[in-house]
Amino acid sequence: MNKDPAKKSAYAEAGVDIDEKTRMIASIKKSVSSTRTPDVLSDIGRFGGLVRSPGRDKILVGSTDGVGTKLKVAHMAGKHDTVGQCLVNHCVNDILTQGATPLFFLDYIGTAHLSPKIFADVVKGLCKACRENGCALIGGETAEMPGLYPEGEYDLVGTIVGVVSKKDYVAGDSIRPGDILIGLPSTGLQTNGYSLARKIVFEKAKKTIDDVVPGTKQTFGRALLAIHSSFLKPVLAVRESGAKIKGMAHITGGGLIDNTPRMLPKGVDAVFDRSSWKVPRLFKWLQENGGVETEEMYKVFNMGVGYVICVSRKDSATALNALEKAKAQPMVVGEIQEGSGITRFA
Q1: Residue-level pLDDT at 41
Q2: Which of 1, 13, 157, 300 is paired with 283 by a 20 to 30 Å CA distance?
Q3: What are the φ/ψ torsions at residue 143 (nearest 5 degrees)?
Q4: What burial letters (b/e) apply to 16-44, b meaning 16+ CB within 10 Å?
Q5: Domain extent for 218
Q6: What are the tens digits of pLDDT across the range 259-273?
Q7: Following DSSP, what letter does each residue of 238-256 receive, concatenated?
Q8: Boundary (domain end) residue, out of 110, 137, 165
Q9: CA separation for the pair 185, 228 (Å, rounded)
């Protein structure tokens, strides 16, 4: 039976066009293949991606995450080519805290109806960040579910698997009082705190995407969509310098208050000197206009510190020099003191 090409299938009439989805996936194959690494053994399109297994002295590290309601801002701005980069970099940073470098990445895009342009832009961002991090995009899931998602919006989630040798595994158990905390600056909110930020910016202050953040030259759209940085290259620079990394924390949801303790052993606290770095104007504006207590600001947002590296005092100069050469703009933001495994502020 010859099918009329102009006639939609019953499934398409219900909101899910399988043929369109197939065409879109075919259209990204070239872009996805640009992320291929030597360990990848298959192309996308199979039921599972194939990657060569590392040796027995290696540890696999996996993580899954999303970019939260930053997607709402992308939808408002009509800009979708950066959130994929944010997702990959976020996941890279998470496994990096244990010393792992990325092997491969898989994504999930869920939506009411797939827009070819938005789909292509999101995947473009995923592929760009995968190439920059030496990580292969080996597959994923793209799901159309009318009635579950608001029309025109989508959800974006990623899973990453990385590898670390046993000698380079960072457990945090060697952290001791007197060790130094080095902070690497964030580019903005990274991928956390957007529900509160959106409420303050768009509901309380009645600002728009195109309004300029007071005291800056950036619009709210540009500031809120700033790409979440990958800290992979700076951390590898420290490792290659010979300085021993004792612990690391990615400052995501929970801020410095909740994330830094995740790297600490029993009996010590992470003590930060808030005068040692300049809090970006966006965070100050959010606090002023949202009436948010200082303690909560440091629990919701990163406040300008995107990543924390702990090294011994004797290794701190070597680590700082390596980070400066890597143009990571390092800041000595505190030290380790005796305590009960919490974050404190001097």
Answers
A1: 74
A2: 157
A3: -120, 130
A4: bbeebbeebbeebeebbeebbbeebeeeb
A5: 180-345
A6: 999 999 999 999 999
A7: HHHHTPPEEEEEE--TTHH
A8: 165
A9: 11
* Phi, psi for 119 (deg, rounded to 5): -55, -45
Q: Are 71 and 155 in contact (CB under 8 A)?
A: yes
Q: What distances in angstroms separate CA 234 from CA 93, 156, 221, 255, 308, one per listed residue?
A: 11, 27, 28, 21, 11
- 194/334 Cα distance (integer angstroms): 27
- Give the pair of three-digit tokens for residue 267: 């009996």
Please tell me the distance from the alpha carbon of residue 180 to that of residue 297, in angstroms, as a whole number. Answer: 24
Q: Is 174 a member of any domain?
A: no
> Is 3 among the domain residues?
no
Does residue 35 surpass a pLDDT of 90? no
CATH code where residue 323 lies: 3.90.650.10
**Res 10: pLDDT:** 47
- For 194, the token pair is 């957007």
Same-domain pairing of 240 and 284: yes
Let me know: does 105 contact 153? Beta carbons within 8 Å.
Answer: no
Beta bridge partners of 107: 140, 158
The answer as to whether 173 is a domain residue is: no
pTM for the model? 0.89
48 and 154 together in one domain: yes
- For residue 61, give the H/E element and its range: strand 58-66
Is residue 4 scored above 50 in pLDDT?
A: yes
pLDDT by residue (tens digit) across 227-251? 999 999 999 999 999 999 999 999 9
Percent of the chain with pLDDT over 90: 81
As given in the structure block, the two tokens for residue 171 are 């457990």
Confidence band for 44, pLDDT divided at 50, 70 and 90: low
The token pair at 127 is: 């592929």
- My answer on whether 126 and 149 are in the same domain is yes
Whether residues 66 and 158 fall in one domain = yes
